[in-house]
């Protein structure tokens, strides 16, 4: 049975219409409650009370579904742009929004953090951020380098932090005091400040 035939059969049975938005929101709910490994078309269809084939009238495949989820995550970002901000201020406010998104959606955050730069939802977002850094005083080459370096730091830090929230961890009594707190979210902002200062000194202010 084709996807269209499956939808027609469900309509004939009087089932409520399911939209693409419904499918994407159900995917978020499934991933946040059970993890990304649980996000299969079969599990998603079961959550919606539909046959798996019927989902393909809304998304082409799992990759298309993930792109839709990444697009939704980008829309949820609060990047906090303000007129007249410097590039340093732009990074601080944008990365605060990025961190807050990881806190709100820890199990799906890595879909955005690890998405390829050239994917359709991500590349326009990065282009806007590069333009923002240029408005803040960087030239185009500096803006690209700074964003690439800071994104590597922030994405790596936040993905590790988010994953360790749900993985089994060693009992606190068994953790050496020298490493306790290394993955504490409170270290994210000081690390970002050190990185911004280093970039300003070694990349931006170089004669």
UniProtKB/TrEMBL annotation:
<dbReference type="InterPro" id="IPR036271">
    <property type="entry name" value="Tet_transcr_reg_TetR-rel_C_sf"/>
</dbReference>
<dbReference type="InterPro" id="IPR050109">
    <property type="entry name" value="HTH-type_TetR-like_transc_reg"/>
</dbReference>
<dbReference type="InterPro" id="IPR003012">
    <property type="entry name" value="Tet_transcr_reg_TetR"/>
</dbReference>
<dbReference type="InterPro" id="IPR001647">
    <property type="entry name" value="HTH_TetR"/>
</dbReference>
<dbReference type="GO" id="GO:0003700">
    <property type="term" value="F:DNA-binding transcription factor activity"/>
</dbReference>
<keyword id="KW-0804">Transcription</keyword>
<dbReference type="InterPro" id="IPR009057">
    <property type="entry name" value="Homeodomain-like_sf"/>
</dbReference>
<dbReference type="GO" id="GO:0046677">
    <property type="term" value="P:response to antibiotic"/>
</dbReference>
<dbReference type="GO" id="GO:0045892">
    <property type="term" value="P:negative regulation of DNA-templated transcription"/>
</dbReference>
<protein>
    <submittedName>
        <fullName>AcrR family transcriptional regulator</fullName>
    </submittedName>
</protein>
<keyword id="KW-0805">Transcription regulation</keyword>
<keyword id="KW-0238">DNA-binding</keyword>
<feature type="domain" description="HTH tetR-type">
    <location>
        <begin position="17"/>
        <end position="77"/>
    </location>
</feature>
<dbReference type="GO" id="GO:0000976">
    <property type="term" value="F:transcription cis-regulatory region binding"/>
</dbReference>
<dbReference type="Pfam" id="PF00440">
    <property type="entry name" value="TetR_N"/>
</dbReference>
<feature type="DNA-binding region" description="H-T-H motif">
    <location>
        <begin position="40"/>
        <end position="59"/>
    </location>
</feature>
